[in-house]
Amino acid sequence: NFRYFTNRPHVTGSQVSRNHTDIFIRLWREYGFEVEVPEYQVLLSYPEEDNPNTVTLFNSATGQVEHNIILKINATEGPASTQQYPYLPYLAYATNGTVQAELVYANKGFESDFDELQRRNISVQGKIVIMRSLFGNVPNAEMHGAAGVILFPDPLDYAPEGHEDRDTYPNTPWMPPDGVQRMSLLPSSGDSLTPLFPAVDGIYQKPMKEAQTTKVPAQTISYADAKVLLSKMTGDLVPESWRGALDVAYRFGASGNTSSNFTIKLSVHNKLAITKIRNVIATIKGSEEPDRYVMIGNHRDGWLFGAADPSSGTATLAEISRVVRELVREGWQPKRTIKLCSWGGEEFGMLGSIEWSEEHDRILKQRAVAYLNTDVAVGGNFILFAQTSPMLANLIFTHTKHVKDPLDSKKSLYDSMLEKMPSRENPKLPYLSGFQFSTDNLPFCLLNGMSTADFSFFFGYKGKFVLYPVYHSQYDNYDWIKRFADPEFKHFTAMTQLLGRMLLDLSDASILPFSVTRFAYSTKKAFQSLEKSSALLQNYGVTLDRLRDAVYTFINISKDFENAIKIRDGQRNPLLLRMINDQLLQIERMFVS
């Protein structure tokens, strides 16, 4: 099924994306699951196919065009494919407009980068800012008065071994010079016309003129094109920490003392459209606690072929659902209800999952047990990366010990995680991350107070995990996965086994396998971070004494609670078990309003 999900572009709202939705509807109904298909009318942002965005370099002296970037290219599934698909790189929700101005380089666009520019008396007011990051901080550039923003993937992060054909895909896993990424710049997640409410019929929808877009035009380009622009820049050389890996001198560009010999004309022609998206929710009723939901999910939509993101996760979810069907056929029924979730519209701002969590907020706060997510199930083969609520730590540790490392069958996933990335707080345990990357588990954690986790096999470079180098580009395709990430699909198998084991444990365990004490200690860690600002808070008459007492009281009570649970381990009184599990479910919910 993975090959099928990646063979054509499937951006949200496209016919292929609708076909993928229909596949899950048909498949899960054939399996005998109860299937719901909730629909939402959400605001999406697309490029104009007949009027692509452009970035043009003009010679200031002659007015002549020296370089013209037309953001429309033909993409294929891989070097052996002749079938071409139009690919228009853009930044979703970037405002329309045309601006022409001098260019200023702002590193990665962090607030500290703009502080450094100010310290050097370099103003970005009325200038176009170029930044070497897909995650460039466009709002920071806007706040400092920029007229436009250009983002590019610097080869320091995406092609550190060189930029020649022999150094990049398809010969190596690294991003080719013409690789261009897509990204959403939606300032807040969820449908921007129905904030905090589901985008369903009957809900008030803000007028289109109030849609959330950037204040200035913004566009993404390749590092080959960025090299041309950067090579023309004047001004002082940037500090070493600001330099990327292009074969050019990285300079600040236009400043009060240095005029540029060229200008950049940035033209963005994105269009906004209210579009129907669909989720697919399959339900397998629980035998003992049908009103308790154990959830697992992935999003279907991709920016183009979307092999790693999201189709590796889509294929994993499909395989898990097949295994669940086989267990049901053999007479098994989960004690708690299982919900399999296929989301739409994630790339534009987690639209499908957020709208659904908003629609069912009251029910989820009362009934949901946990949500397991895999967005990029396989983006590499270096290490299993889990971003999770601390409540699920023990669950993860338990089951990674029972799944073999795909690259070394003598080791478990737990062993390889511990070896490659031990915890900073406790080197005897593997590292588990907090929520670093936004994906569909976040709304269930932040809005509904659920314990959630997201799992991905990450790419590695020089002993460290890094984002896979063709992320969100036209080269995130089946061929790249087959060549470099998982040639024998062993990591796909391991992910399916891991998520399947955790799903069954959460649905069948008499007492929920939650890590209360780990969660309590995470509040201590958060408090210690806040405590670093205690002197500043005292200037405003704010002390942290009571909060400190509350944190340490919570830790002590958590230890007592877990000890009490251990004493009752093996207990068969359903009422007592229900009481314990109800208390466990409410712990994280206490921290959301």
TrEMBL record:
Keywords annotated in UniProt:
Carboxypeptidase, Glycoprotein, Hydrolase, Membrane, Metal-binding, Metalloprotease, Protease, Signal-anchor, Transmembrane, Transmembrane helix, Zinc
Q: Which GO terms describe its molecular function?
A: carboxypeptidase activity; metal ion binding; metallocarboxypeptidase activity
What positions does the domain PA occupy? Answer: 99-182
Q: What is its EC number?
A: 3.4.17.21
Q: Which residues form the Peptidase M28 domain?
A: 279-483
Annotated CDD domains: M28_PSMA_like (cd08022)
Please give the Pfam families that the UniProt record associates with this protein.
PA (PF02225), Peptidase_M28 (PF04389)
GO BP term (any one): proteolysis
- What membrane topology is given? Single-pass type II membrane protein
Q: Does the keyword RNA-binding apply?
A: no
Where can this protein be found? Membrane
> Membrane-spanning residues where?
none
Name listed for the protein in its UniProt record: glutamate carboxypeptidase II
Species source reads: Nematostella vectensis (Starlet sea anemone)
